[in-house]
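## tool: complex_structure
## caller: assistant
## args:
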Amino acid sequence: MNRPHLHALAPELESFAAEPYYQPVARETELFQAAATKKLPVLLKGPTGCGKTRFVEYMAWKLGRPLVTVACHDDLTSADLVGRYLLAGEETVWLDGPLTAAVRAGAICYLDEVVEARKDTTVVIHPLTDTRRVLPVEKRGELVRAPDHFMLVVSYNPGYQSVLKELKQSTRQRFIALDFDYPPAELEAAIVVRETGIANELAAQLVKVAALTRNLKGQGLDEGASTRLLVHAGHLIAAGVPPRDACAAAVGRALSDDADSVSAVDDLIRAVF
Amino acid sequence: MPSSEPLDRAALGERLDAIFSFDVSSGRNYDELTEPLLAGERAVQEFALHWAKVAAPTHLEIAYLVVLLAPLALDRLGRRDAEAWVVAALDGFDRVGLRAAVMRLRDIEGFARSASPAAVSLDAIAPRLQRFLQGLAGRPLRVEADARPWTDTETVYLPPLVELATREASADRYLALAAMLWAQGRWGTYAMDIDAALADFARPDHALDWLALLEALRLGARLERELPGLRGEIAALLAGLPPQLDTARAALAAPGAGVDDSIAWLRTHAEVAVSPAPTLECLPTLHPADARERRAARIREQSQVLRLSIAELLESLRAGQDDPPPELEVDADPERLELEVKIDGASVTLPPEGLAAAQSLLQDLGEIAPELLVPAGPAEWKGDGVGKGKPGTLETRADALFDEWDYRRQAYRRQWCHVYLHAVGGGDESYVLAVRARHAPLIRQLRRRFEAMRGEDRVLRRQSDGQDVDMDALVAAIADRRGGAEPSPRLFCRRQRDERSLAAVFLVDMSGSTQGWINDAEREALVLLCEALEMLDDRYAIWGFSGWTRTRSDLYRIKEFDEAYGTEVQARIAAIQPRDYTRMGPPIRFVTEKLLAEPVRHRLLVTISDGRPDDFGDDYRSDYGIEDTRQALLEARRAGVRPFCITIDRQGADYLKRMYGPAAYAVLDEVRKLPLKVAEIYRKLTI
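## result:
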């Protein structure tokens, strides 16, 4: 049987022409670059909204490699990553999954929140993360060898207390791990200013609100306000929303549904603005 | 229908007698009580009698005062608030004691004020303030009531009631005061020994009062910068400061000003401090001795936590190698409470508790001295549970405290029940073997049934993708194509494993009434259940409960979620034996918390008991116990736990429907059915 090799259906790769804005905090860019040179996979750890995805975009731009981002969810199977046959008229057509596409193209493949994916995805991740650097595409009986430029990056949030969302040792010990956290206050304010164009003083106040909510972590809140939420609040303020209302909408209500926790955050916002 | 005629002296005496008759010691006479009631309408009389009856089991003195003051309270407060007035007094008794209850009852005027729409009471706002302070401080600060605001740097004392023009303004006043007191700890009011610094003043007591005002100025200015949202409230607080202090304003508002600047100003203006400072009710006072003690204890404690976590960190980094001792450095920013710890030049992340301790020390000391980084030895150190749920007070050392529902008050008695956790030991390991042998066929049957419930791989048909071709779908698709219809592209089948994601707790009655048959049946039931459950991956725990009044609810750990069903657990099952009474509320609340901590989708609580709740002494055996149990089950269900109650009750009493209303339940009329039933019920509930 003549199998059509139609990669025309493969998912699109993202390439960054302009530099995505990213503010380095420590030595993460150098470490990432070194890992890229040495063909090592990278694990990004850190709370939500602290800049992991933006960092990967920035590094993709810096290294001049295309990027494939996959937001993992609990129904994501290995087939979703590797690819599947589709029916097209008289025949079946193979469609590369995002991972396969990234391997073939020598791109960076970023699996965001990898612990959310179904367990069977480890089967395809593991051979890519050791010296073999291959992707078995079982359905086609194909073994795709990763070119030197291919790089696997995964992220996860250790803040989840759930035992179901832990990363297994057998998986995590394959990666170079980079710790991410919210940037120090001044840097965070600078990021908010840069992203939203609000005044320095307002940004500093937003950062203060965030710091206060982070104190409530574990005391009613699962997580404190992320840098991303501050940027949202900054955008609202830039659009003319009064700061208190902007924070209530972008921070307080985004953090929790619990009325007590929301009112606690409101009090803190009230104290700062 | 009761008559609306007022009760006469004789009738009143009779009703009061029913409430107070056993109080022979007090020497009260009813005339004192009947007089004010005689003049009232029937509704007033009934109100007084009803609430006296409610209060009597708590304390007769309270009941007595309720009768005495009810007419006044009704007149001043109206019916709804008068009820709240009694409940608040009873709550005061539960929390503080008789004196608090009596004071609350006598202070009808105060209660009326607190019931005014613009007033905010500390009781009402305390939880909110606690979270607010947690946010500001990053460590928990307690909130307590006192006439004047002050803090020992761990507890924040605030006035019991604030009434400004509006409710919002009153609440904002509380926020500003709380922030002011937090600022005392945060910006070093107690960072130096104030008593020593003021000792050489002519009148150290006056100097202290003046210093309190100066600190209010300094911290007010600081807060206006740090928390600009509170600017208006802070300005209002500081409005009444005497004119002598005007020259201090500018100096103390400088960004780097500290408590030493306040003292220095006082020193250069010593003539001010010879006369007493004006009393400004709303401004904080200083209590250096209390603060010094708390601060020293905290620094000791947090240093130990920090040193332990550094030891832990080094342990994990070195992994047992005999390297030379590493070089530790710390870079701290006391303004932002940020710090970076370096080991041999490389930056490391402290574990969360270590980081919290370091930040706490940084707040108290302004720096992290190198000796604090010396890793601690293996000495045992136990946290005092600050921030954990509801730790017991020092006096009781209970493992947990729980609220209890008082249906007569229609309110909770706060922190009312003391729960103690126990290990069960000394059981006969061969017991389980014997049961296993006796019930071998039954166990085989149960295991087969349970096996059928396992989270088996399921084949999903007609998927757009999968390991195998779905032949049925393919045939249908070909047929469609031949017939000219558009074929479905969903031609595959996929195996999918379904996880059960379930946690269950079995709560077993170990009260004295289970002596004999029931106890045997309970133990057998647990054995059969465990044998069957071993076929599944469900997480389950087993707790036994018994108790003796509200001050001692005992919970016996038979099996924790993480324990395997091994010889140890088997020996504990064998060791289950009848003990005291059945106070069901606290155990239900306890295991509900346990269940909520489990990371699963479904939570199941199965209670196994014999008959109605019962406890020694107080009236738990009456409707009180039934209502509290019902309330505990309601709480569990609201929290997302599915309660199921199995009870052995030969009478099939009618209270069951009310008590177990919020839960599903099964009543067994024969003890010997229990062993098989428990496993069967579990199977049906989770199939």
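## assistant note: DSSP finds 24 helices and 19 strands in chain B. Residues 120-286 of chain B form one domain. Handing back to user.
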